[in-house]
Specification:
The complex is a heterotrimer of chains A (280), B (248) and C (255). Chain A has helices spanning 44-51, 74-80, 88-91, 97-107, 112-125, 141-153, 171-186, 198-204, 222-225, 229-234, 241-251, 265-279, and strands at residues 6-15, 18-28, 33-37, 59-64, 67-68, 81-84, 159-163, 190-194, 207-212, 215-220. Chain A contains 12 helices and 10 strands. In chain A, strand 7, helix 7 (171-186) and strand 8 form a beta-alpha-beta unit. The longest helix of chain A has 16 residues, at 171-186. Helix content of chain C is 72%, strand content 5%. Chain C contains 10 helices and 3 strands; from the N terminus they run H-H-H-H-H-E-E-E-H-H-H-H-H. A 3-stranded antiparallel beta sheet of chain C has the order 1-3-2. In chain C, a hairpin with a 4-residue loop joins strand 2 (92-95) and strand 3. Classes of the chains: A alpha/beta (280), B mainly alpha (248), C mainly alpha (255). Chains in contact: A-C, B-C. Chains B and C meet through helix 1, helix 2, helix 3, helix 5 and helix 8 of B and helix 2, helix 5, strand 1, helix 6 and helix 8 of C.
Chain lengths: 280, 248, 255
């Protein structure tokens, strides 16, 4: 069997009295793009901070390529797993874009030339060339987001975690971010993305993990997850629009192949147009 | 609004009417170039022990708890922002030092001396409040003397089991007034009149600044009380986290 | 805070930061030490021309910044020039029933002299502030070996100031929208409430920011890659000539 890149076994974490994660287990494989869903306060962010080595689990273990990460090795975890925060402002600390991107690599104790190379690569990847000398605190929301992604990109971690990457972005900027996420996937990165956007999760992810009250209540392919009404209800989720439309078309007997869910609205529209042509 | 808050508000209205408060300026920062070299250096030297002490206190806090570094930095930023924030229909563009009094009560005077120093450097460069050559004098009056008095007054009031709000008010107001006395003395020492004593010169400087400073000190005291009450209302866990225990 | 924005836009921004700091502080020290009206006037004119002409800082902005301490100057100017006395002992005396406000020629001269010196000092500092972003000034402080902890705090505080200003501005707008500043009394209350919640926000953010630092491998040291700005020979020569000119003026006037 294929070895998971990162696996979490029976993880527990609590803030003082309040349990935030209980008995969470998950295996993440190389090259996956996983959407992590669940209502606010379900434990997604806490889970991510544990994966990233910022929080220390109360019990349970995290294994990287089969090797257990000891409590002392949490720093090691931070080299392997990068975390793009939801609010870019909470991440950005440096006076210029280039300096900002260099912060992570500098902490990895790389040589000056290597840091410079990584900063250049990330700037090129995120198309930040024009902004390199600018102070991040004067940038727009979408630009800040790109900088915060470049920050983590420059650390060249095996796994990248995004906490609600589209939050507070306008449609064009969220489309840009989605494009970036697609590109990262094509380039072989392993991605974990927390999101509330069911349509995005449905069309983008190849696997969805659902959190509720500190536990994982479902884990599987998008179509399967979005069919389980109980799960959707518990996690305060809705069915994606494309599925609702398709199910309605099936029920009305217009389409027959129920399993062939369209991934995007555009696909659904094409499909429907084709059926219409067939009829006329 | 609680009863106390109402009472304070009533008092502040009466006060405002009586003095027709409209302080538009901060006269507390000694401006660039106002002190001759010997005084610049002397005040700087006087600050050294306090600043060094503050530095060690902060370093100890941070070595014990790394997490404190962002909290301290936020506190510094908070002092800066609060002092630069305009209060529409109360002040024009005044930089009031509410922040340091509050900081002294919350974090202790040693910590504030370092944070205050950094804030003063930023104010001098970014806002033209104060100056670089007068930094020593300004640090002494605003980041050391004022907060020290605030902290002491607050501690004494707490010991005497005085009403908490009264204690905060006195601490902030007296700290403010003391800052301003120190500033007057600093100027008087520099611009001593022929034949006049330092004291009479100080009284003169005190005199010209009184119309703006006295009402400002009272407003500052009131504000600090109200901020503390607001904090008590919805920031108890945060107050506990920074080690500010609830007294009496 | 806008001054930082203008610093980024300044034509002199590309100059070596250490050089600009040296030029500014050096001039400042000379102005204070020489205490000579002609030197002060020369500095006001030359550095003003430099900031406005070479740096291309907008005149309106420059004047606004220079006038910030005007009130302080007027107040302390009066205190320096005048003397309260029971006898009319000055050249000009204003009676105020119980005492006299006495103005002496020497007092007025001193007040003017001090004011000119103060403006010259400000010109020197603002030459730096309008051309050098704050983080580069902090970088220079780091080079002269100020303790790392202090530098780190300064960098973080500077960054957080912007965040808190944004939050505060939003809160104030929201408060204004709900008529929070209609009267003196409401203003005070609103201000206190904003200050209180700003405090809470700042502490909560502080925790989140620490997590963000950790997740990027923070280990007690904040370091960035900085872009190097080289000092050009003609700039250095210009600085040297400028210092010499100031000293010459001082020698000449002192006689």
């Amino acid at each position: 069997m294929k070895q998971p890149l990162l696996s979490v076994k029976n993880l527990y974490y609590s803030y003082g009295e309040k349990a935030a994660l209980s008995n969470v287990s998950l295996e993440i494989f190389q090259g996956e793009k996983i959407a992590v869903m669940g209502s606010n306060g379900a434990g997604k962010s806490t889970f991510f901070l544990n994966l990233n080595g910022v929080l220390k689990p109360d019990a349970g273990g995290i294994f990287f390529q089969g090797k257990k990460i000891e409590k002392k090795g949490l720093r090691e975890l931070r080299r392997r797993v990068g975390f793009v925060f939801q609010d870019a402002d909470s991440q950005i600390i440096a006076p210029t874009v280039a300096a900002e991107i260099s912060f992570g690599p500098m902490n990895l104790n790389l040589s000056g030339a290597e840091v410079e190379k990584r900063v250049e690569d990330s700037i090129a990847y995120m198309d930040l060339g024009d902004l390199r000398g600018r102070p991040p605190h004067y940038l727009s929301g979408g630009e800040k987001k790109r900088v915060s992604i470049a920050d983590i990109l420059a650390m060249e971690t095996e796994i990248m975690i995004f906490d609600e990457p589209m939050a507070a972005l306008d449609p064009v900027n969220s489309e840009n971010v989605e494009e970036i996420l697609n590109r990262l996937h094509r380039d072989g990165r392993t991605l974990l993305i927390a999101t509330h956007d069911v349509n995005f999760a449905y069309r983008y992810a190849d696997r969805i993990v659902v959190f509720s009250e500190g536990r994982i209540i479902a884990d599987g392919a998008p179509v399967e997850i979005f069919r389980e009404e109980e799960v959707l209800e518990r996690a305060h989720l809705k069915q994606p629009g494309a599925m609702i439309v398709w199910d309605a078309l099936c029920a009305a007997g217009i389409v027959s192949n129920r399993e062939a869910y369209p991934v995007t609205f555009e696909q659904a529209a094409e499909e429907i147009a084709r059926i219409g042509e067939g009829r006329s | 609004m609680t009863k106390t808050q109402k009472r304070i508000l009533k008092f502040s209205i009466a006060f405002a009417l009586a003095f027709s408060v409209c302080p538009t300026v901060s006269a507390m920062h000694i401006m660039e170039g106002y002190l001759p070299p010997a005084f610049c250096i002397a005040w700087g030297v006087i600050c050294v022990p306090f600043v060094v002490k503050g530095f060690y206190v902060i370093r100890k806090i941070i070595t014990e708890n790394r997490k404190a570094v962002t909290v301290l930095a936020m506190a510094g930023a908070y002092i800066f922002v609060i002092s630069a924030l305009k209060i529409p229909s109360v002040t024009g563009s005044c930089s009031h030092m509410t922040g340091t009094g509050l900081g002294a009560i919350l974090f202790g005077s040693c910590t504030v001396s370092i944070l205050g120093m950094i804030v003063l450097i930023f104010q001098a460069i970014l806002l033209a409040h104060g100056g670089l050559t007068t930094l020593g004098a300004n640090i002494f009056s605003m980041a050391i003397a004022g907060p020290f008095v605030s902290y002491a007054v607050y501690a004494i009031c707490k010991k005497c089991r005085m009403n908490r709000n009264m204690g905060v008010f006195l601490a902030a107001m007296l700290g403010d007034l003391f800052t301003y006395c120190v500033t007057s003395v600093q100027l008087a020492l520099t611009y001593q009149k022929e034949g006049g004593s330092v004291l009479s010169s100080a009284a003169e400087f005190f005199g010209v600044f009184v119309p703006t400073q006295l009402p400002l000190a009272v407003v500052e005291g009131l504000l600090t009380v109200m901020i503390m009450m607001a904090l008590e209302n919805y920031a108890k866990p945060e107050l506990k986290a920074i080690g500010f225990e609830k007294s009496v | 805070m806008q001054i930082d924005r203008y610093a980024y836009r300044s034509n002199v921004n590309s100059w070596n930061a250490g050089f600009k700091v040296l030029l500014s502080i050096g001039t400042l020290c000379m102005v204070i030490a020489f205490d000579e009206v002609m030197v002060s006037l020369f500095v006001i004119m030359s550095l003003g021309a430099f900031t406005l002409g070479v740096g291309k800082t907008p005149v309106r902005v420059y004047l606004r910044f220079m006038s910030v301490p005007l009130a302080f100057m007027i107040c302390s100017g009066i205190a320096i020039a005048a003397q309260f006395s029971s006898l009319p002992s000055g050249e000009w005396n204003i009676s105020a029933h119980f005492f006299y406000l006495c103005l002496t020629k020497s007092g007025i001269k001193l007040a003017v002299q001090v004011s000119v010196k103060a403006i010259a000092g400000m010109s020197a500092v603002y030459m730096m502030a309008f051309s050098t972003p704050m983080h580069e000034i902090i970088g220079v402080m780091q080079k002269i070996r100020l303790p790392g902890l202090l530098i780190e705090l300064m960098n973080l505080i500077y960054r957080y100031i912007f965040i808190l200003f944004d939050v505060a501005a939003e809160m104030q707008t929201a408060a204004r929208a709900r008529l929070g500043y209609q009267s003196f009394r409401k203003s005070l209350r609103t201000f206190a409430l904003i200050a209180g919640s700003l405090f809470v926000v700042s502490l909560r953010k502080a925790n989140a920011y620490y997590d963000a630092l950790l997740s990027r491998g923070y280990d007690g040291k904040i370091e960035f890659l900085t872009e190097k700005k080289r000092l050009k020979a003609w700039q250095a020569a210009g600085g040297a000539i400028y210092f010499t000119a100031v000293i010459l003026i001082w020698r000449f006037c002192k006689r």
